[in-house]
Structures are given as structure tokens and as C-alpha cells.
Specification:
- The complex is a heterodimer of chains A (422) and B (306).
- Helices cover 19% and strands 35% of the residues of chain A.
- Chain A has eight helices and 22 strands.
- In chain A, helix 5 packs across helix 6.
- In chain B, helix 1 packs across helix 2, helix 2 crosses helix 6 and helix 6 packs antiparallel against helix 7.
- Chain B has 306 residues and is an alpha/beta fold.
- The chains are: A alpha+beta (422), B alpha/beta (306).
- At the A-B interface, strand 2, strand 3, helix 4, strand 7 and strand 8 of A face helix 1, helix 2, helix 6, helix 8 and helix 9 of B.
């Protein structure tokens, strides 16, 4: 009767590439897709023809990530595109974001689901302000694995000294931010050195190639494995003959794990009960882990509905009607302190106002500037007041219960992304 | 910091994608007032049905199934569609383009022209008729360039239009499902699945699919590097000849524009092998001048349904 979830088959890794076209970002993505054999023949033929038409000797792999016709005509890129490739070890999803305009908004969106970020640096230019900006945003969004790809090594004669100088410069900045998992790789996306193949020119570099690193980086602990958090999505009461008394709580375990018999607390009511069954379509489980979608039944009849949360007794999140958050403003319409917004947090939507704006963060200098509003692409610290309490954790400890979106009640647009900090 | 006992069991990519899709379906059920699931009998929507079973059993689906029938669908697919809906004991609504044509909502230049492009008119009429505020579909981002940029919850205005330059930002897995009256949301729970993932999942879940997905002898015409299935809609022109070839369909849609590929894959395992073939034969060989096999070229060629 007890079926454990199968763990056969490769894991999924999501990553984002940060850099501009000039850093060779599109070439890098094209190279990953090409060298991992994820490009289809007809796509390759198409870009080969285009490359020849434009009078290029080789194939311009950056053309692979060119998007819609409108974009090509205007030479622009429309926000985030998702791309897929696989090796026998892992499946990968790349969030491909354009480099220039509206960068903050796009990168924050792409980074919100990423396990890892590749920061691209042009070996000729070294660590630029934008490299720091990208790194800060990745850090802000809680991405724990950072690869600094020092690209265009072919244009600096594959010089080890150049690579080491950039590594040194970057590590000063990384230390300031308190970053831990930073890996540096010299590469030439154009020639394919150190991406999938090692190439011949970088023999002094002894560590893993980019693809090996992507295949092997450990992502087991990217989710909080300790604190059980189960936001209720739906209550299942089929009321058929066979399932007359069935009352199941449907949702996804956002963090931690749960076993049959474990004592749980229902929030915000604070009442407790024990897990009776962990129901799935494939049978009952004894234990379920973070990221699994399941249906839970409990021993007692309690009044529980969507927006409530089951947590483990003793490991209680905060229940707040007022909280501080870092907001990334995404809308062309600036934040209006006089207006009510909607906040969607886990499975709950509540009315909210921003009662105070503390400061805006200059993503280039990391300086704090006092402000009275936030405009598109601004990142700032604000105080929220909400109509009903949110059951939340700090974003840095638990992304699922520490993140929220802000919705404009009139337009229904998503206008901001927020991260809760105490 | 973590003892072994607490460490999480690794999830395979299919488990991760499945759980993501279940979460999405439950969000639709919880927040949308009147959703529908688009079910055509094709492989992607077959997967949606299994995911809906996983999301909502032991309960019923909180939405009906909706099919927009072009009138040019493969008969075995229509038969499968009806049988599957019955098996699941779920409500299937069919709205047909024939009706839209009779009502003058769809005007075709010829009886035989492809009807794919006109499906949206019938779909929008059905959305208006039933006041659906959300339609769950089986489109995937790996299918096409435009789809690579579309959100999982994709907003459509009151004319049913998608504006790629004006999409709602979609962060974490917090979905904005809100619409005004008359607008709607298209929801794509398997956005992040690839064609290979789809076949691997069909294999793992032992899902039945219509027979035309498997290799079979079929009368076809070779035209512009593609194989056209001979039917009352498609007949040889000029010096074209009809010939019997072993083929399978990678997508199923309107008979006038859905082309099979040459294949000998008679079961799901063999389809997976064919779908993955580029990677298998070329693994280790990573140079640009590598040749992919002719078979894989044909296999890859006809992607791009929707």
C-alpha cells in the first residue's frame, strides 16, 4: 500500500544567465544547447543560412535564442524566455533574460525560480558595475549557487593572469555580500572551450567544465528541509458513497517533511491534530517531502480552509498583520501609498497598504537612498499593513513562505514582487 | 547541519514537473470561477487528464472537458476522446466548427482548406457561451518560439488576444489568476515539459494514446519534404503518387495539415528511443560538423502544433 515516490530518472536544475548580449550570453546559451545536442536539425539549418546571409564564416549560435519576429525586426528582446536541454544526468531549464532595459524586473522574475545563476563577464572588460548588479540581484533573490563565467578568453590569449585578476576582483565583492558558493570558470563560448568540451587552450584550468558543474552541483538543500509548511490549496470533500466521510486537505509541501502520526498545528487558529493519512493518486504514503503535492487527512474535525497552513508543532512561523519587506517594483505605474493593493502570499490573497517606504537600494552602488515611492525596476525596503494576518517566515530561511506578489486591484496586474524580512 | 535522516529524497525531473502541474491545476480550481480543460484526445491533453486525476481524486474534476472539433479530426482520435471522457466519468463539452460555419461565424474559402487557424473563433464562442474564465491547455514552451515566452497563467483580453509585450510578470510559483468579466486566462500546467518528458510520462503512467501515434502503414503523398496523409481532404495533385509508408504522428490535429513522420516505433518505448535519438547517437561527439541522422531530422521536423 505504501508507495514511495520514485527517484529514478534525472533531477531538474533551473538556472538563469545574467549578462548582456555583448558578454556573449546568447552565444553561451546557443553553445549549451548545441553541444548538448538539444538543437534540432531544422533550427540549425535555419541559423546556418542566416549566418551565411550575414556574411559570417561560422555559425552564429546567438541566433538560436533570437525570439519573435517582432523582436528581430526591432532588435529587442521581450522579457523572459525559457529554454530546455538535457544531459543523461540532469534536465535543465534556462531562464533567458535580456540584458539591457528593464533588467531588474526581468532578472528578478527569472531568478525567482532558479537554483543557480551564471554571471557572465567579458574577459577584456573585467568586473563591471553590471556584473555587480547582477550578482546583487541573484543574492537578493536567494540563489545559493553562483558561477562566474569569464568569457571571451580567446580574445585575451587564454591568459591565466587575466582570469586570476578577474577572480580576485570579483571575490572582494562576493565577500562584501557574504556569498559562499562562487565558482569561477574561464571559457570561450564562441569556440566552445570549457563549456561541454575542455578545449585545448585552457589546460591550466583543472576544475570542472561548465556542463559538468551544472550536472553535479548539489541542490538538495536549496529548500528548507526542516520546517514543515503546508499551505492549504483546496479542501476535498467528494461526498460520494465510498468516500462519504473523506475530508482531505490538498496542497504542496513547500518545505520540510511530514509523516503519518506527526502532530501538526493549524494556523492561524492554533488548533492541533495528528496526520492520519497522506493520500496520493498512486496510493498512501508514510512520509512526504518538500515539493510533493499531496492530500492530507487529520485525526480531528477542525475548521480548515484555503489560505490556512499546517505546520509542525513547535516549528511555528510568524503570524503578522504588519511586516517589513524588500519590494521589487515591476509596474510602469509607481507605488502609491494612498492606495490599497492585494497581496498574494502562499494560497492567501489579502488587502494591503504600504504604510512606509524606508529606502531604495541603488543596485549599482548598493547605497540606500530615502524615497517616498518606488518606480519600475526600483528595489526598496517598505512596511506593509495587511487586512488579515499572513503566516510567514523570513525569505532567507524559507522562500515559499517569505515571498509574495502585489496585485493592482483595478488593473489586476502584478505590480511588485516582495520578500519578507524581519 | 542536517542529519541524514532529515535529508530529502531526491525527486526525479518527472516527479518535479508532475508536482508543479498538480499545484497549478489546484490553483485554477481554487481561484477561477468557471474553468474548463481543453481535451482533444492528443498526447498533451491526455497527460493533463492524468494530472487532473492526481490533483483532484478522490473528488471529481472541478471543471468540464472542452473540445473544439474542426470536423476534420482523425476518427480514431475522436473515438478515443469520447471513450476516455466516459472512462473518467467526467463531463465533455464538444463545440464544432461545423456549427460556427453554419452560423456564418467562420467563413472558409474552400471545404478542404486547413481549419486549424479558425479553431480560435469556435473556442472564443464557447468561452463566451459558458462564461469560462480559465481554459487549461496542454501547450508546452519547447514547441515554439512564441510559446517559450508565454506565461503559465497567460492573460487574454476580452477579444481573446495575447499581447506578448504586455504580459504579467510571473514569479516563484505564486500565480495571478485575476481577470475582469469577459477576459480570461489560459493556463498551461505542462509549460515546462519537453516532448521527451511527455513520452516518458506516458510510459511511466502507462497511459493509452490513440493508435495513430504508433507506426502504421498509411497512404501518403510526398510534398515539399513532408508526408501528407491521403484522405478525402488530401489527394494527389499533378504527378504526385500515393504510396504506402510506415509512419507515425507526432502531433494530432486537423487532418488537412497534420503530417506524419516515417517511423518504425510501434510502442511508447520505441517512440522514446526515437525522440531521444539525437542525444544518444551524438553524446560524446560534440563538434559542430557532426551529422545528425536522417531519421532524427525527420523526427524533429514537424514540431510546431498550436
Amino acid at each position: 500500500m505504501n508507495k514511495n515516490i520514485s527517484c529514478d530518472g534525472p533531477e531538474l536544475l533551473r538556472f538563469i544567465t545574467a549578462g548582456s548580449v555583448d558578454d556573449g550570453k546568447s552565444t553561451l546559451i546557443g553553445r549549451l544547447l548545441h553541444d548538448s545536442k538539444s538543437i534540432f536539425e531544422d533550427q540549425l539549418n535555419a541559423i546556418t543560412r542566416t549566418s551565411h546571409k550575414r556574411g559570417m564564416g561560422g555559425i552564429d549560435l546567438s541566433l538560436l535564442t533570437d525570439g519573435l519576429q517582432a523582436e528581430r525586426e526591432q532588435g529587442i528582446t521581450i522579457d523572459v524566455a525559457y529554454r530546455y536541454f538535457a544531459t543523461p544526468k540532469r534536465k535543465f531549464i534556462i531562464a533567458d533574460t535580456p540584458g539591457h532595459e528593464q533588467y531588474t524586473r526581468n532578472m528578478v522574475t527569472g531568478a525567482s525560480t532558479a537554483n543557480l545563476v551564471i554571471i557572465l563577464i567579458d574577459a577584456r572588460k573585467g568586473v563591471l558595475t553590471q556584473s555587480k548588479r547582477h550578482t546583487y540581484l541573484a543574492h537578493l533573490m536567494g540563489i545559493s549557487h553562483i558561477i562566474v563565467a569569464i568569457n571571451k578568453m580567446d580574445l585575451v590569449d587564454y591568459s591565466r593572469a587575466v582570469f586570476e585578476k578577474i577572480q580576485q576582483d570579483f571575490s572582494i565583492f562576493a565577500d562584501e555580500l557574504g556569498l559562499k558558493n562562487v565558482t569561477y570558470i574561464p571559457m570561450s563560448a564562441l569556440n566552445g572551450d570549457m563549456i561541454v568540451e575542455r578545449g585545448k587552450k585552457l589546460s591550466w584550468y583543472k576544475n570542472l567544465t561548465l556542463i559538468n558543474l551544472l550536472e553535479n552541483v548539489s541542490i538538495d538543500q536549496d529548500i528548507n528541509l526542516l520546517d514543515f509548511r503546508f499551505p492549504i490549496q483546496l479542501v476535498c470533500r467528494p461526498q460520494t458513497e465510498e468516500t462519504h466521510d473523506f475530508r482531505g486537505y490538498m496542497g504542496r509541501i513547500e518545505s520540510g517533511y511530514i509523516c503519518v502520526g506527526d502532530e501538526v498545528t493549524v494556523l492561524p487558529s492554533g488548533l492541533s491534530s495528528r496526520i492520519k493519512e497522506i493520500v496520493t493518486y498512486d496510493g498512501l504514503l508514510n512520509r512526504a517531502n518538500a515539493s510533493q503535492s499531496v492530500t492530507l487527512t487529520i485525526e480531528d474535525h477542525l475548521d480548515i480552509s484555503r489560505g490556512d497552513m499546517l505546520v509542525r508543532v513547535g516549528k511555528i512561523p510568524r503570524i503578522n498583520k504588519e511586516f517589513e519587506a524588500t519590494l521589487c517594483w515591476l509596474s510602469e505605474q509607481a507605488l502609491d501609498l494612498k492606495r490599497k493593493y492585494l497581496v498574494k502570499h502562499t494560497t492567501k490573497i489579502v488587502k494591503a497598504v504600504v504604510s512606509q517606504t524606508s529606502y531604495r537600494i541603488d543596485v549599482n552602488t548598493l547605497n540606500h537612498e530615502p524615497v517616498d515611492t518606488l518606480r519600475m525596476n526600483d528595489i526598496g525596503r517598505v512596511t506593509f499593513k495587511v487586512q488579515q494576518p499572513l503566516i510567514c517566515d523570513d525569505y532567507q530561511y524559507n522562500q515559499a513562505t517569505g515571498s509574495f506578489i502585489v496585485i493592482d486591484e483595478l488593473s489586476n496586474n502584478t505590480v511588485a514582487a516582495g520578500m519578507i524580512f524581519s | 547541519m542536517l542529519t541524514k535522516q532529515y535529508s530529502m529524497q531526491k525527486m526525479s525531473h518527472l516527479d518535479t514537473l508532475e508536482s508543479e502541474a498538480i499545484h497549478i491545476l489546484r490553483e485554477v480550481a481554487a481561484e477561477c470561477i468557471n474553468p474548463a480543460l481543453l481535451f482533444s484526445g492528443g498526447k498533451d491533453s491526455i497527460i493533463l487528464l492524468r494530472l487532473a486525476e492526481k490533483a483532484f481524486r478522490p473528488g471529481r474534476f472541478p471543471f468540464p472537458l472542452l473540445h473544439i472539433d474542426t470536423g476534420h479530426n482523425f476518427p480514431e482520435v475522436i473515438e478515443f476522446r469520447d471513450r476516455r471522457a466516459k472512462q473518467l466519468n467526467e463531463h465533455l463539452i464538444v463545440r464544432s466548427m461545423e456549427d460556427s460555419i453554419l452560423k456564418g461565424r467562420v467563413v472558409l474559402r474552400s471545404e478542404y482548406q486547413s481549419r486549424n487557424a479558425f479553431q480560435s473563433i469556435t473556442l472564443l464562442d464557447a468561452i463566451a457561451e459558458f462564461r469560462f474564465d480559465a481554459c487549461i491547455g496542454g501547450a508546452r514552451r519547447d514547441e515554439e518560439k512564441a510559446r517559450a515566452k508565454e506565461r503559465i497563467f497567460s492573460f487574454r483580453d476580452e477579444f481573446g488576444q495575447w499581447d506578448p509585450k504586455n504580459q504579467r510578470p510571473e514569479l516563484w510559483n505564486i500565480y495571478n489568476t485575476r481577470v475582469h468579466s469577459g477576459e480570461n486566462i489560459r493556463v498551461f500546467p505542462i509549460s515546462n515539459w519537453t516532448e521527451l518528458d511527455v513520452w516518458e510520462y506516458i510510459s511511466r503512467e502507462q497511459l493509452e494514446v490513440p493508435h495513430i501515434y504508433f507506426a502504421h502503414k498509411r497512404a501518403v503523398i510526398r510534398r515539399d519534404n513532408t508526408l501528407l496523409p491521403v484522405s478525402y481532404l488530401v489527394q494527389p495533385k499533378g504527378d504526385e503518387k500515393s504510396e504506402n509508408v510506415m509512419v507515425r504522428f507526432r502531433t494530432v490535429g486537423d487532418m488537412s495539415c497534420t503530417c506524419p513522420v516515417e517511423s518504425i516505433a510501434k510502442n511508447v518505448g520505441e517512440i522514446i528511443a526515437e525522440t531521444a535519438i539525437t542525444r544518444i547517437t551524438e553524446r560524446g561527439a560534440t563538434r559542430m560538423d557532426d551529422q545528425t541522422s536522417d531519421a532524427s531530422m525527420e523526427l524533429r521536423k514537424k514540431e510546431g502544433y498550436f
